[in-house]
Write a structure and sequence with these properties.
The complex is a heterodimer. Chain A is α/β, with parallel strands linked by helices. Chain A has 21 helices and 20 strands. The longest helix of chain A has 18 residues. Chain B is mainly α. Chain B has one domain: MetI-like fold, CATH 1.10.3720. Chain B contains eleven helices and two strands. In chain B, helix 3 runs antiparallel to helix 4. The longest helix of chain B is centred in the C-terminal third of the chain and has 37 residues. The chains are: A alpha/beta, B mainly alpha. At the A-B interface, helix 14, strand 16, helix 15 and helix 17 of A face helix 1, helix 4, helix 7 and helix 8 of B.
Amino acid sequence: MADPVLALDDLTVSLPAHGDRARAVENLSFTVGPGEIVCVVGESGSGKSVTAQAVMGLLPKGQLSLTGGSIRLLGDELATKSAAELRALRGSRMAMVFQEPMTALNPVIRIGDQIGEALEIHTSLSGADKRARVLDIMRAVQLPDVEALIDAYPHQLSGGQRQRVMIASAIILDPALLIADEPTTALDVTTQAQILRLIRELQVRRNTGVLFITHDFGVVADIAHRVVVMEKGRVVEIGAKEEVLRRPREAYTRMLIDAVPGLAPPARAAMDQSAVALETRSLSKIYSVGGGFLSLGKGRVVNAAKDVSLTVRRGETLGVVGESGSGKSTVARCVMRLIEPTGGDILVHGENIAHMSSSQLRAHRKRAQIVFQDPYRSLNPRRTIGEAIIEGPVNFGASREQATTRARELMALVGLSPDSLDRYPHQFSGGQRQRICIARALAMEPDILVADEAVSALDVSVQAQVLELLDDVRKRFDLAVLFITHDLRVAAQVCDRIVVMLKGEIVEQGPTAALFRAPQHDYTKKLFAAAPGRDYAFGGRT
Amino acid sequence: MSAQAPSSFVASAAAGRGALRLATRNSGVVIGGLIVLAMIAIAILAPFLGTVDPTEINPALRNKLPGAERTIRLDDGTTRSSTFIMGSDSLGRDVYSRVLYGARISLVIGASVALLSVAGGLAIGMIAGYFRWADAVVMRIMDGLMAIPAILLAIALVSLSRAGLLAVIVAITIPEIPRVVRLVRSIVLSVREEPYVEAAVTAGTSVPLLLWRHVLPNTIAPLIVQGTFICASAILVEAILSFLGIGIPTSTPTWGNIMAEGRQFFRIFPHNIFFPGVFLALTVLAINMLGDGLRDALDPKMAKRV
């Protein structure tokens, strides 16, 4: 094998003294060869991003420090280099692509100037030559209409285009090493597929070594040559992709792979007989952007949801699948009546709640509850979780004692200690908080539970547990569950039926198994084809 | 993202409990706080700090320099000699006594303007931030208020009514309210989008309770900081109004009207302006230091940036 582009040997990064563990990364050793993609995969807190920062020399000052081992880039030791020497290497020999393409680009600088920044710093090309180089690289990352885009600002681009710009600015000087830190996590699945394909092509053509950080085994399956599995700062397993994915040696790797939901839906009993709990008829929500007091003329109109008709029966999980901007959350928020729909009906047990006033809605508040995506913002940081759980029942006349007794039962039900009711949200992990949110929703004894991307922010192992809990409470309380997700794998595992949304409209719906077997609409087919890691059987769990 | 969220979250949650401890570690809070406390003590204890009646006119003892001796005849006919620590003014009044008693007016005005404008701004800001229908109308009124120069509005209000403490307080409070409203409204606008607020909506929590329980606590820390700045600026505005002769009538000493009094003979007897000026500057500086320090202590993100 050729000399490695990057060789980490016994790398150790220390955390500040009061952290929950002494080292962010401990005794890490692996190599990235030229033309090789090495995926570092692990759950949050596994030290994978710290590894990337250490290589780039971007560890946060005063918080993390390199305390041992060596980092060699093309045989050149980086650990002992000064800040100025590292700066000279960044951009030219190694470059990085970040997760969030919106915040990683400066909103007030033109695209061309941002891509050309590395040329500005590392070369002495003339203006015209620079522009030519920038246009070349923009074509190489397959940006459309490059002559126009070069003078555009980041907000005028889509998320996928922004990430292409990031990649272009990273590879413009042909670095030997490209570090990609979760580069597709913030993107829709179809865009993700395109970006992954792009990275693969570029890397083959330019023989770049790629250190690819991800939490998603589907992405690993699509892109990796070799895989490094990390847990709590240590390497669990290193090996070729086929080895690690198909025949993992370590129990931890096995557990992670099994926790990834499979794309094959399990058999489910049809729910045709049970009563319809929730029905929307031609639901629509129109936002007018701009326009308002004192503004001249009408603003632009956005159809967030258009003619959405769906039904959810008791005991059934209806999945609403779509990419960002498809209107799936708008539907959820209309059903919860957090917003008022512009048109159409929302029938809950036959009663139309679409245009009720807030006082009329009181009864509805008891019947429908929601679990949100972000476990860190769903609970008021200033109030104990006990107060959070009893808030609803107390609003509806339960005494504090009754409500607290019930809250203790619910805590046990969601797998948490009843004695922790007087603790504050920050004392719980993300998965535990999501359990608390489920307990809070159940405290109202609802018939309808809306889960708006409820497991999307969680690590796969935690995600699997929360999904199990959701399924368990659905059966136990005969809930009608409206499950909003962008993740086809999750949808395949938990939904009885699926509705696919595109630009505010339903393009296809049907039983999960049938939909996965034979998608009809072009968009559904595209969505399925883009799901990463299709060729690997994940989800040994179910 | 998941690595970032917990740390900042824990920081903000810990900030609530550790704020007091953090605040006392901040030198601005300690020094500013001590000076403000000293000023409050002076204002309350003014009669016991060797002062005489600050309004007593004594034509025989006009324009004495600091340190000049004088003899006071007490009610029982005996006499006692004392010193004009800060000299006397053109009517022979003791500047030391006037400055000490003047602290009362300044602090009362500073504190009441801060409290009133924060309370008023909080109420209006919450309504504007939470109720869409109120927002446009309320904010346009506030914009209108902000377009009027604060001092001119104060002059107009004071000249419409009888000059006095209440009129001055009202006159200074009104132009401060829009600033508080803007601050509170922006906080409410961002907090109302938080999932925990929406969760409370779906739990059937009534709007007043929702605002009180889930929205209001988020405004407290920024309002404490804003309140100190308003307090400092109110003290200044009062001094300006009194200096211009449209604030508190000269029968009640305030730092502003003591300085106004001393203006005519400034070149010969600068002490009439110097001493109240020092007190005024020191108080405003201390309150601003306190506010700055509190902002750093209550918002760890700001502290780190410094």
